[in-house]
Amino acid sequence: MIVNSTQLLRVIQQFTRYYARQFADLLARTGLSMREMDVILFLTNNPGHDTARDVTELRGLAKSQVSAAVDLLAERGLLRRTPDG
C-alpha cells in the first residue's frame, strides 16, 4: 500500500488528537497543560536525559515551549532545577 504525504499527515493529526484525549481527565484534575505533561512524561520515561536540550531534541518540542513548561512545573514544585555540571 502506498501512502502519500497527505494521508500520513492525517494519520498523525488523528493520533495526536487521540493521544491528547487520553489525558483530558488527568489534565483537568491536575491543572497541567499537555505540554507540561509531555515534559513530565519524557523525564519519567527517559532517565539520564534530563536537560532541556534532551527534551527538545529527543521529544521534538520547541525550546521555548520546554522552557515555559519547565518554569511552570518548577513554580508548582513538580520539578526541581539543578545546574548542569
Strand-helix topology:
Elements: H1 5-22, H2 24-30, H3 34-45, H4 52-59, H5 63-75
Write a brief caption for the model.
This protein is an all-alpha fold.
* Order of H and E elements: HHHHH
Helix content: 55-70%
The N- to C-terminal Cα distance equals: 50 Å
Q: How large a portion of the residues is in β-strands, by DSSP E? A: under 5%
Walk me through what this model shows:
The structure is a single chain. It is built from 5 helices and no strands. It is mostly helical and about 80 residues long.
Sum up the structure in keywords.
single chain; 85 residues; mainly alpha; 5 helices; 0% strand; globular
